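Exercise 7b. Backbone tokens:
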């Protein structure tokens, strides 16, 4: 310490302070050396392991980056393959639908033709029946006008004889 009057240091008093300080530092170093050394060693080990871990993570990230870059390079060809497969599937589906529609249309045509033939036969039978009815009606009217009471009796007798003849033949 400096004296109050501004004179230089007094080594007899301040020297003890310096010696005490050096002894204190020596004792601290002596007792704290092992824990400090262990602390520094463990810290160094932890830092080294963290650096190795960081390098491993960096290497893994680099590999993933490379993998993604490879995928990106081939993405266009993969997209083209997928589109081509989709086109082929669409074309197959279109052909299948077209074949199915053609078969259905042919079946409808066949059914319609069959129905038309059936309806034509029914119509022909109806027309024949109507024609027969009209012919019978016309014949009946014609016969009624031409036949007299005696002719009618003669027709009835002939009809009865024919029916008896047919029944006798059975």
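Sequence design result:
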């Amino acid at each position: 310490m400096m004296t109050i009057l501004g004179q230089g240091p007094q080594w007899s008093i301040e020297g003890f302070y310096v010696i005490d300080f050096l002894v204190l530092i020596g004792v601290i170093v002596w007792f704290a050396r092992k824990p400090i050394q262990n602390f520094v060693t463990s810290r160094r080990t932890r830092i080294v392991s963290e650096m190795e871990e960081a390098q491993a993570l960096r290497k893994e990230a680099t590999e993933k980056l490379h993998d993604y870059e490879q995928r990106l390079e081939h993405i266009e060809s993969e997209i083209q393959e997928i589109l081509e497969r989709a086109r082929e599937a669409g074309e197959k589906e279109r052909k299948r639908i077209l074949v199915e529609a053609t078969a259905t249309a042919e079946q409808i045509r066949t059914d319609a033709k069959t129905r038309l033939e059936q309806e034509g036969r029914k119509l022909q039978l109806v027309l024949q029946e109507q024609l027969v009815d009209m012919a019978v009606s016309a014949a009946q009217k014609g016969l009624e006008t031409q036949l007299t009471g005696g002719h009618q009796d003669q027709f009835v007798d002939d009809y009865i004889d024919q029916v008896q003849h047919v029944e006798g033949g059975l």
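Instructor comment: The two ends are 169 Å apart (CA to CA). DSSP finds two helices and no strands in the chain.
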